[in-house]
């Protein structure tokens, strides 16, 4: 099934996840920015029943806004949660960097997707830096792991 590795660097509150995807870096990269695709892979379905892209302006300095509709059985219960940010770096098909801030929080973190050809597909490495607490880091670990599985299923029919 999914081949994934996880490393949590507690001293810097950084999360690093790696997922092998059976698709080209170009196809994976495009799914990171296409509104229909983002709505399909973002938001782990174990916690979120829908991700609704309300704004995606994929250029350096452009903003995004995603509404996550939480499931009734999610750890935080039902309701909507909005994440916003600004695209900092877009280097198709290798690297995507953007800020990450929940609308109801003041803390801002940074998310980086690095893509590299690997084994006929793509190795996707996600780094989420500057997380505010160990609990936030652990929650994002669960969330991003689900998102990466969904991304692999969406663009490659699964992970290698």
Describe the protein in words.
- By secondary structure, the chain is of the alpha+beta class.
- The protein has a domain at 4-44 and 91-156: START domain (Alpha-D-Glucose-1,6-Bisphosphate, Chain A, domain 4).
- Helices cover 24% and strands 44% of the residues.
- Strands 1-2-8-7-6-5-4-3 form an eight-stranded antiparallel beta sheet.
- α1 packs across α2 (35-41) and α1 packs across α3.
- The model has no long low-confidence stretch (mean pLDDT 91).
What would the keywords be for this entry?
160 residues; alpha+beta; Alpha-D-Glucose-1,6-Bisphosphate, Chain A, domain 4; eight-stranded antiparallel beta sheet; 8 strands; 44% strand; globular
């Amino acid at each position: 099934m999914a081949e994934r590795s996880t490393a949590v660097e507690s001293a810097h509150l950084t999360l690093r996840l790696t997922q092998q995807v059976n698709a080209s870096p170009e196809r994976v990269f495009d799914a990171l920015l296409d509104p229909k695709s983002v709505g399909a892979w973002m938001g782990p379905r174990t916690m979120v029943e829908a991700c609704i892209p309300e704004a995606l302006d994929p250029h350096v300095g452009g903003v995004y806004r995603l509404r996550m509709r939480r499931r009734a059985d999610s750890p935080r219960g039902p309701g909507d949660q909005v994440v916003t940010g600004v695209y900092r770096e877009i280097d198709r098909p290798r690297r995507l960097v953007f800020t990450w801030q929940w609308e109801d929080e003041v803390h801002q973190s940074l998310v980086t997707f690095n893509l590299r050809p690997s084994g006929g597909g793509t190795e996707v490495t996600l780094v989420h830096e500057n997380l505010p607490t160990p609990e936030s880091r652990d929650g994002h670990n669960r969330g991003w792991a689900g998102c990466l599985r969904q991304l692999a299923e969406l663009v490659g029919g699964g992970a290698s």
